[in-house]
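Supplementary Note 3. Input sequence used for the single-chain structure prediction.
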Amino acid sequence: MQAIHYFPGGNTAEGFCSHFGDILPAPMQRRMFYLKGGPGVGKSTLMRRVGEAAEKAGLEVEYFHCSSDPDSLDAVCLPQKGAALMDGTAPHVYDPVAPGARDTLVSLGDFLDEAALRSHIEDILNLQKAISGRFRRCYCYLGGAQKVLEAARPGQEDPREARKLAAKWAETLPLRGGGGSLRHLFGSAYTPRGHVDLVARMDLKQRMTVDCPFGLDADTLMTEAARQATMRGLHVVALMDPLCPARISHVIIPAHGIGLLSGRRGPTEQGEWLDTERLFQMQEEAEKEQSFDRNAYELLIQRAIEQLSAAKKLHDELESFYIEAMDFSRLESKRDETIEIFCRGDKD
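The predicted structure, written as discrete structure tokens, is reproduced below.
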């Protein structure tokens, strides 16, 4: 059983957008663990160990990557067990709602030498301020890129045609008894490593892609497709646009390996593409203007990524203070205990 990878949040034109509440929606929750502690104390490593143990046990595992460092994890989820382990620190602060009864707080900060950290308080606060400044600049550049896309829009989506195509696609889907569900997450994100796309590595048996020209999106089609798939009793994941998080880029049905995707078709692109000849009502657009718009858009995205990369370097420097102050030998027993409870369940 192959694990699935998502981003629960994203660096967008509207700032940081969080869908951490959809990692494991409240009605599905049976066991929740919230990790607390500073940067570099081992939260991501603990989540990765838990995920690996669950995979070895043959369980379905979902990994949720951090958009500010895609090599790190923000959460790991076991949908079959209704269990999730997630980072509950800023900028996505979560705390136990039903402590002990369902939710467990795992405080890794208990293993920190606070006296050692206090000697670096000025450095820590200055680094936090500098990191915030880099993210602010990033969001300004992403906001500019979104404005360029709006200026470059060569037409618009026909809502009636979008609903027709969604209905036609939905007719090919399995019909499942009971109620469906809809989660909103990200399949790609702007990160210090550039635009990272996790959808390309998803093990989808059926991929249908909508060709969206530069400046256009298929949000109406995707929104209607997600609604109809949910009405058929399916558990659906709507993957949001990493730049404009109010729009849906892809619709995934993980249990059946089905995806309705959007993208821009290149000359060598393979796979099945949805016929969208009548989906978009196109207007005449000067080729010169399109070239200027693309260049401006790509430059702004690159500048945003440079800010994220600079923020990551500062964050690594911030982590170094916490790593030096962390007693990792004491963390091992807490790690083993958490893996035991999370993957195998409590004794009762």
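The helical segments are 43-56, 114-118, 121-152, 159-170, 219-231, 287-324, 328-344. The first strand starts at residue 4 and ends at 6.
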